[in-house]
Amino acid sequence: MVPWQKRHPNGMGEQLEMAAPHLLFWVAFAALLYAYFGYPLCLFILARLRRRPPTAHQPEYRPHVTVVVAAWNEDAVIGGRIENILTQEYPADRLDVIVVSDASTDRTNEIVERAARETGRVRLVVTEERRGKSVALNVGVPAASGEVVVLTDANAVFERDAIAKLVGPLSDPGVGAVSGQLRYHAQTGTGETEGFYWRYEQRVKRLESALGSLVGANGSIYAIRRELFRQVGPLDVNDFRIPYEILLQGHAVVLEPRAISYEDPAANLWAEYRRKVRIMSRAIPTMLSLIPATIARGRIVAFWQLISHKLLREVQGIFFGGMLVGALWGALLGSMLLTTMLVLQAALYLMGIMGWRLPSAGVWRPFRLAAHFDMIALASFGALGLWLTGRVTPTWQPGRGGTDG
Asked: Which residues contact 399 (CB under 8 A, 6 or more apart)?
């Protein structure tokens, strides 16, 4: 017994006192274990039992597609982005572009207007006030002429057959939305660690897709049937809310991993941290607003996925904190098991701190991965702080690491 541990007149009180930190630690640990490993395992089993029949793609299916790009001060990339879209291996008479300029103050509007004059397949829509990507999509999607709308970012780059591959699953009338796959140009530094996380995410998405209930799309590349679009709120994460609303309407949402879009990763972990804080802080209210509609429609599987894939991930910082507090509490009470767990956590956090500065290759890669997951846990705390204090903002900053929903 350590000197500061209180003595009890009988063993029962001591057992009850020791049970509390154990309960806190193991509940938090179980929540994280389920979120990252238990949920994918359950998906795997469920997919085997009730896999959605595979979509019979029609290779010749070529609906009229409008690509909608929300842009704010993207003059450095918007010209190349438009060219990348218009040169897709897709019938030119069935492909056009709408760029929604969210009150840009640079040369974005000028560049888009020139492309509109030269090609006749580009349209510029300008908002008078900067209100964020979700509001820009509320303007751009209803203005689209295509029966299928592809939503993407200004800094993304499609492979030449991306749109043709992306619309393939929509040849099945039961499919309402299709997500493509995001890859990172760089596979070093943040690109390597974030790429590792994305590879894990893609495996989870494939399992969800097998059920026809993909929870969220890749904002860099996804397609929807225009008539299924519902207006989104300024703080909504569009690539989460829009596909999920389509799922609630009774349509399948699936992944097409052969439709590939590329983006540059964040410049460093600090930039990635800030991006994730913005995304998570908006994902929390988006998710909470969707829970009542999910329950009201009796979508049991979707509700389970919403909690397992979204809620537990967005608040995971609480679980990391619960493990740390529980282990520290138990160590102060003399628990050898929780003392060991405290030492292990401290070692992992120390690896993460070191990983912020160490190179990502070779023997240092585990340090960089530890840093990445530490960053995600901290971002969860930051996002909760923004949400609880009402400081969530709908606008985004253009960057070579992707926009934030």
From this structure: 155, 266, 271, 275
Burial per residue of 224-251, b for 16 or more beta-carbon CB atoms within 10 angstroms, e otherwise: bbbebbeebbebbbbbbbbbbbbbbeeb
Q: Is the Cβ–Cβ distance between 403 and 219 less than 8 Å?
A: yes
Instruction: In whole angstroms, give the CA distance from residue 396 to residue 216.
Output: 19
Alpha helices (runs of H) in 219-364, residue ranges in sequence order: 238-248, 269-296, 300-305, 312-314, 316-332, 336-355
Among candidate residues 235, 244, 77, 253, the one with its CA nearest the CA of residue 152 = 77
* Residue 122 tokens, joined: 């580009």
Cα 71 to chain centroid, rounded: 19
The number of distinct structural domains making up the chain is 1
Domain that holds residue 214: 1-405
Q: Where does the pLDDT of residue 10 fall: very low under 50, low under 70, confident under 90, or very high at 90 and above?
A: low
- CATH number for the domain spanning 163: value is 3.90.550.10
Distance CA 248, CA 188 (A): 39
Q: What is the pTM of this model?
A: 0.88
| Block residue for tokens 């995410």 | 201
Residue 363 pLDDT class (50, 70, 90 cuts)? low
Which DSSP symbol is given to 23? Answer: H
* Pure H helices in 39-173: 39-50, 78-86, 108-119, 133-140, 162-167
